[in-house]
Amino acid sequence: MTYNKPSNSRIRLGMVGGGQGAFIGDVHRIAARLDDRYQLVAGALSSDPARSAASAADVGIAADRSYDSFEQMAVAEAARDDGIEVVAIVTPNHLHFPVAVAMLNAGFHVICDKPLTSSLEEAEELAALVKSSGLVFAVTYNYSGYPMVRQAKQMVADGELGEIRLIQVEYAQDWLATNLEEQEQKQALWRTDPTKAGSGGCIGDIGTHAFQLAEFISGLKTTELLADLTSFVGERKLDDNASILLRFNNGAKGSLWCSQIAAGNENTLRIRIYGDRAGLDWSQENPNYLSFTQLGESEQILSRGNASISSSTGFIARLPAGHPEGFLEAFANIYRDVADQLVAHGHNQHTDSDVLLVPGIDQGLRGMEFIDKAVQSNALGNKWQKFNNE
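Below the sequence we write its predicted C-alpha cells.
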C-alpha cells in the first residue's frame, strides 16, 4: 500500500479546549499539522473568554473565530461558507458529551479525546447520534497509531501466534503518588474529581488505553471482568490503582493492571499476548521494537521500518529504521487516517478504515463499558460483570 497525500486543500479544523497550559491541546495541534492535512481555523479553547482569546492568538486563530463557548462556535461556524469541517474535543471528560452533541448537530465531524464521555448512558446516547448522523467520529486512543502495535495486530490476525490464550496488559505511572490535587495542580484537580472525570479515576485516564490496546491487537472482545479498585492517596474519591481480571470471547484469559501511584514508573504501557504457537511483547517506552517468540525458538526483535515487518505497517512508518518514532508520530498517524476518512466521506467513497483501524465510536463505547463494569464489580465486592457484546 502506498500513501499519497491528497491534492485537495487542508481540512478546516476547530478545537474545543486545549488552551494555555493544556498538554493535550498542544499534542493534538502538533499531530494535526505533522502531515500538513489540517489547518486550525477556529476554537473555543477555554471556558474563560480572556484565556480563550489569548490562547487563540498564541496558535494563530483569527480573533473573529475565537469563541467564548462551544455553543457559540457551533452556531457561528455552521453559518460560514468556510466554516470548520471537523472539530477536536480536548476538554475534561464531563464536557465531551455536550460538545460532541452540539458539533454533530451542527453537521461537523468529530475527533474526541478519550474516554468518550463521563458515563455509559451518555456514551450510548452519543453512539446512537453518531450512527444516525453518518458523520465521521474518531476517538484518540493514540497508542493504536504506533507502527509496531499495528504490526502486532497484523501478526495476530495472520495466525502467527495461533489461538490466543493469555493477554497481560499494564499501564503504570507515579505522578499521582502524592496528593497533587491539594496543591491545586490543574491536571490532578479535574482527574480526581468525579464531577469532571466521571466514575473512573485511573481506570478512565489510562486504564481505558490499556483495555483498548488489548482488544485492538488481539481482535478479541472482553466478555466479563472482575475488578479491584483502590484509592491509596488521602481522601481521593476516585481510584488511583486497579487490578482487573478479564475473560475473552474465545476463552482466553487476561489481566489488566493500571496505576498512577506506582513509584518509579513514568509512562509504562506494556502488553504481552500469548498464543499456542508464539508470544508478543511490546512496550510504549521502547515503541520501535516488538518482541516475537515462537514456541521452542529464540526471541526475535522486530524493528519498525525494517523490511521484516508487514507492508501494511510499513505504510505508516515515517522514518527509516534506526530513527526513533514516538508518541507524537503515533498520534499523528490517527489524525492522518482520519483525514483519509474525511476525504473519502466528502466523495461518498468507502475507505480502507477496516485496514487502518482508526478508533471510532464503537471503541469509545467499549471503553466506557469497561469503566462502568469495573466500577460495578468493585462496588459489589469484586464480582464478575458481563459485557454487552450484542
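Confidence is low (pLDDT under 50) at residues 1-7.
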